[in-house]
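Q: Hi! First time asking for a complex rather than a single chain. Here are the components, and I think there are two in total. Is that enough to go on?
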Amino acid sequence: MSASDGRLKSAQFRREREDTWRQLETLVDRVEAAGLKSLSAVELNRLPALYRGAVSSLSVARAISLDKSLLDYLTALAGRAYLCVYGSKRPVAAAFADFFRRRFPAAVRRQGGFVAVALAFLLLGILTGFHLTRADPERYYSFVGEEMAQGRTPASSTEELRDILYHGDSGSALTLFASFLFTHNARIGLLCFAVGFAAGVPVPYLLFINGLTLGAMAALYHARGLGFEFWAWILPHGVTELLAIALCAAGGLALGFCLIFPGRHTRLRNLALRGREAGLLAAGSVALFFCAALLEGFFRQMVQSLPVRGAVAGLTLVAWTGYFLFAGREGRPWRPGR
Amino acid sequence: MAPGTVIERLRPRLYAVSTPEGLSLPFQVAPAGDRILAFSIDFLLIIAGSIAVSLLGRLFLGGTEEIGRSLALLASFFLRNGYFIVCEARGGTTFGKRKLHLRVLSRDGGPLTIEAVIARNLMRDLEIFLPLMALVSPESLYPSAPAWGLFVALLWLLVFALMPLFNAERLRCGDLVAGTLVAKAPRPVLLSDLADHPQPRPRAEPGTAPAAAAETVSFTREQLDIYGIHELQILEDLLRQADQGILDQRVLDQVGVRIRQKIGWPAERWSEPVLPFLQAFYRAQRGRLEQKLLFGQRQERKKAR
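A: Yes, that's all I need. Here is the structure of the assembled complex.
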């Protein structure tokens, strides 16, 4: 064939549609740079229409045109526009609010088994450390590292040990203390989740080791008759912090579990299905670490009364239990009359 | 998940998303080098951000050292853990990724959920922080471990760090956990249609004044049935390079000779200039192949002799 009419059909097709492609490209550029919010109402309306136009252009072009530049351009444009139109559209703030209102507590409930296992390992560590140290105080040194002990050893006098429990501080030093506690603990918690990827093996170990340390310290204070005061010192923030660690660890355990026992799916697919939910636990626990650090960094340093410390510990326990058991539950799954 | 969306793996490193409109859109898996580069950009931004916040904190908050230091601590924590999550939750890219045209996609084809973004970014500590620590100061990981134990731990951690190099899809641990994939979406520029404007010429109404090249050079059906789509698109590339003046004249001459031999071009017309000949040939060849396409014949390659 010689091109008798002087124009190829594909060239004519392109001339007719090119304008709308350019319009779509401008909109997509802006959405990619600044989000859907940067479009006006009219433009927002036009985006899906232009997208559909580009999609139909692409399928026509694939059928009639052999211009590689045109095909590449349209394919890339349709791909980018597809992600603008069908991609995630929720504003980040709304997503985060929904996360704490509904998704996080729901995920904790669904992974309740792993949370229980994590708490059990922690408790086992505490009890083991406690009993072993009560039986032989010398073991304290192998359970509590030097930087953890900070002078609290079986060699210290009862007075010194008591002083630490009632050591008060104030001002900007507390802010630094609290932010150090938060970043340090949250980093350890997140790591506790991430190592779950190693088939979950290091997670129980980490939990147990942390429990041992706490148990050994408790045993030291019990031996000096300061048992209640020690728990009143550690539990106001400890409830929140231990729970946060248990949640991270539960996420890590869930990761390891779905790698080892993939069930009906392939490991890769199973991991992709469950991994996201496990990640929710770890992400949410960052908020818990934050609360714990506030309690530890400010409250503990400023409030010395035993009953108040005890009450706060009880209150946090009740509050978190209530939150994780009841937050975000649907009142009724169906609504008559709707 | 958008209704009717399916993602499938066409071949290693090439995925296709079937959109609800029934169209298959290919997505190329991003190469490892691009991802390292994108991460480096983001990493520098995070460090710069942390430093800036702590400096500003000292400047405006009365200069108490504690406040400045605690601000720096908090800023570096939230930047390190939050930067990627917030950026990717807003549209699947970060500044570094955008520079390299990378994008996070959900491997099941749906929109990228906040769960997936969180999960994939929480693994970064395992992939970067732990292996780095194992490299720089292995004894801080577990103080009383023997040397061989630290060595084994290092190897083990390097497996996590180098995970993307062990699989064809360049998935890192975070991608595995979150079911995501990083795609490269380059932005080709729409170039002018070679068949529409073979050479600069005055505006002509369709039909009344056919292109000059088409008048002087015409081809028979047999001559146009030899080459296929693959060769046509290679010729397209060459002509575009010639348009931009970055093609060696000798290459053009060689291609001209090859095509003229192949299609049995009459000897008396070989002296005509090669570029107009190739442009006319491209145009006629594309017309012929597109016509065949309409009749359902897709000739991919040249005919074997």
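A: The CA atoms of residues 36 and 96 of chain B lie 10 Å apart. Let me know if you'd like any chain examined more closely.
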